Amino acid sequence: MATSNGAFLICDDLYKIFKVADIEVMALQGLDLTVKRGELVGVVGASGSGKTTLMNVLGGLTRPSAGQVIIDGKNLLKLSTRELTAYRQVEVGFVWQQGSRNLIPYLSALDNIKLPMTLAGGAGKQNEVRARELMDLVDLSHRYDHKPLQLSGGEQQRVAIAVALANEPKLLLADEPTGELDSDTSDQVYELFKRLNRDLGLTICIVSHDPLIAQHVGRVVAIRDGKLASETVKRRRPHPKSLPDGSVSTRPQDEGGTSITESWDEHFEELIVLDSAGRLQIPKQYREQLGFENRVEMEVTGESILIRPAKNLDDTSSQGEIQLEREIPVDEMGSRPRLLDLLRRKS
User: Fold this and answer.
1) Which label site among 13, 25, 205, 315 has the fewest CB atoms less than 10 Å from its CB?
2) For residue range 96-131, what is the model confidence (pLDDT) as tens digits?
């Protein structure tokens, strides 16, 4: 089980299985994730990797099949339906990619912001004051009475963020919030997220396909096949200053105590995630490049572990499974019978 270590959000061995007709699809497969209070995190992954399912679980829109989801000390799996509804209304805010999902088209920007406050039990002048404060916060004080169709795509998303903040949530979830915006407008929306994170101490998780999201958040987690695969973290390192002789130095000071380092620059480091069971995911391009199949050899070399393709796989179960798959006949419908049925036939 994951330890809290003061974390605001904890996903521990999280599973989510969807059943479509007679087929079960495992969207999350033992995912572990922790997010600190006040952290700005990006979540990336290919389509079907499970990232949107994760956001829906964190937002209380769907219950996981197994595992734990603890947010600000509350285990979402133990909340009643009424408690989960209250959680969605007050403690978490949502920003979606589609403007039609964020805003009601026949309401003004102010009325869109007031609606979630009304649904949560608020009323009167206080809602009006709060809505205007939020419009000012997202730099749209000149758009109070405009309806969504009178706003640009970037303005719609900023109003959507204001709507998400209406009931002062502790967690803000954004699913592809810049997916329909151009690069300049996307940068403006990301800058707004960073300002809200910095000034309000808001915990924010952003799902994105944008490979450049690492430039806008403090940490990026990558999901592959329903599990956390890697994390990209932002580091600061000294930018060396040229010395009179043409060389460079990365020492913070020279012998006389004079500063040599002119500034700091940022770089990104990708770390492969090792889960609680000691498992890690080797990226597909590495496996293909090195000829990895479904068995490898491992060797401890000093302070490192060497992983290399396994040899002589003829006697392993993996080869036996492959051979069995080849021997199983295909029926007239083009599908293979269940293994249990096949064994019954042979007996």
Assistant:
1) 315
2) 987 778 899 999 999 999 999 998 888 788 999 999
- Mean pLDDT for the chain overall: 81
Domain edges within the chain: 7-228, 314-346
Which residue type sits at 273?
A: V
Query: Tens of pLDDT along 131-184?
Result: 999 999 999 999 999 999 999 999 999 999 999 999 999 999 999 998 888 889
Q: CA 92, CA 170: separation in Å to the nearest integer?
A: 6
- The pLDDT-based confidence of 233 (bands split at 50, 70, 90) is confident
Q: Are the C-beta atoms of residues 307 and 298 closer than 8 Å to each other?
A: yes
Angstrom distances, CA of residue 29 to CA of 12, 66, 91, 306: 11, 10, 26, 26
Is 7-228 assigned to CATH 3.40.50.300? yes
